[in-house]
Amino acid sequence: MLKNMLILFLLSLSVIVGLANPASEDPNINVTSLDEILQIEKGFMTISTEWSPDVQYLLVTCSKSDSPSTNIVKHYLLDTNSHTFGEIDYGVHGPDTNGILQAKWTPSGDKICFEVSGYGPTGPGNCYIFCNSDGTNLRGVGTNYTDLSKILENRGDIGSQRNLKWSPDSSKIAFEWQKPGNASTGVFIANGNGTNAHELSSATYPQPAWYDSGKVFIVTDEGTVDLINESSDLIDTFQPEDKDEKYWGFSLSPDRKKILLVSGLPDSFDLHTYISDTDGSNLKGNVSFYDGDNPEDTNILTKEYWQPNGSLLLVNQNRNLYIVEGNENNKRLLYEGNASEPQWFPDGKKILFVENKNKLYSIDIDGTNLSFITNFGPTPSHSWYNSDKIDRFSIYSISPSGDVIVFASALNPDTGKFYKNETDKILESENDSSKYSSIAAPLFIVNCNGSSLTQVTPTTKGRFDMLRRWRPDGKQFTIESYSLYRTDWEDSLVDLNNQNSSSMWTNMTVTKIIEREDPATVGKAQNSESNSINTSQVTENKETTNKSPSFMFLQLFVCIMGVWLLHKAREQ
């Protein structure tokens, strides 16, 4: 009897140990594969993700190669509140969807917009499409087509539309439209639903941008930047100080009080920039310059960064940071060093930047409070990051709320620790893919003051994780994972506040999703497992008690053994 009691005690003790050491999951961070949520077919991969302005919905564009020249495209809508999802039905399916591009939201969030591009039966073309989020009330911008199959069939007759811009009040659009047979490109404006399109002007590369909801800036073939109204009347002209030069492009400040102008000689690739008020006053030069012989200077307007919702201009010239400010547009040195990848804080009061390719700092706009935040490791300078598939992603990204930063950093999968530049032999030959096939580059999050460094995605050899899109409130974001050992991409949804989040997703029609008043999360769906992993250099998070399948089996086993022991005791 004593022996049986001892066995029962040991089994009970094992239960207590199981409670003390449950299957560990980060209670605050949940990473869910979009493939699992969407029950996506084999061969499809995510092309883009776009959050709605009201943060409730996520648009996902997926594509699958059906032949060397044909893709099958699907758009999905996810309701992140009710955990429901569905495929948007435009009335075309399978190979007939070839040419449909990524779905985006209109600024008001009540419609979605996408392009159809490529060759149709009547020739090549590109057309913007507006419709409701369930695919209804569809229209080709500037056309009478309300059927997607007809638009796809008649792309060649429509011509090429591009460079769409929304007016400040989101009531109108301006876009470039080169119609079949026309040598020049027209600048058109239309209502926010794509109707009543009419031409304002034409040029080779007009690059339209709204000044206000009734006036548009364009670049002319004569090398000026003109401001015209809806009736095509000339309001103002910006012309280079040097009459031999031309303006090749421009950029407006978010508050539309200042304009940055790119100038250069017609036969030269050496360019420099001016800044002035949008009324033409206070013109200043020597803002930034582009060396035509420098491969890093091939893209203009990539060294200048406007203050969010303001008119201050941040300039990165020769790895030094400057602020252009005030009524006189004076240029002031903010930071001298080896700076790259600068970004404004969302409130426009501070700036983030990378020093010496792997150290993240913040600095106030007056040059004070220079603060070290975290070390990236060698990832930013690594050839893996500079590959064709990855260079469109930023090294790091700050949340819309301005309190959390997401970044990727290379880890040694064998130790779980950061590589160090001075000892990292893998980086000795950056162009040799075999060298970086053993590197893992998971995502991390860190508070903007440098605290609470936490690993988000697992440490996997040959895998690089990159942030795609922040949810506007900063509570979620989507990521894209590229692996050297796979031919496709894997996208995931990351929830930073997962305590009350359901792990169940329900498939239903998009019409029902957007009509639901009291969303419920019932039905067959997938369980979402957290992939969060903490390394020895990462701050540990508080753990919650989650009963794993093995622990529940142990409970059942103990109950059975208890009944058996009681039975044996009665027999004695």
Cα Rg: 28 Å
Structural class: mainly beta
**Largest sheet strand order:** 2-3-4-5-39
Q: Would you count the extended β strands for me? A: 39
Average pLDDT figure: 82
Most strands sheet = 5 strands, mixed
Measured as a percent range, the helix fraction is: 10-25%
- Measure the end-to-end span: 8 Å
From the spread of the alpha carbons, the general shape counts as globular
Number of helices: 7
Q: Which parts are unreliable, with pLDDT below 50 for 5 consecutive residues or more? A: 1-25, 380-391, 421-432, 518-560
- β-strand percent reads 35-45%
Describe the protein's architecture and organization.
- The chain is mainly β.
- It is 12% helix and 37% strand.
- The chain is built from seven helices and 39 strands.
- Strands 2-3-4-5-39 form a five-stranded mixed beta sheet. It has a four-stranded antiparallel beta sheet with strand order 1-38-37-36. The chain has a four-stranded antiparallel beta sheet with strand order 6-7-8-9.
- Strand 18 and strand 19 form a beta hairpin.
- Helix 1 runs antiparallel to helix 7.
- The protein is globular, with a radius of gyration of 28 Å.
- The protein starts with a helix and ends with a helix.
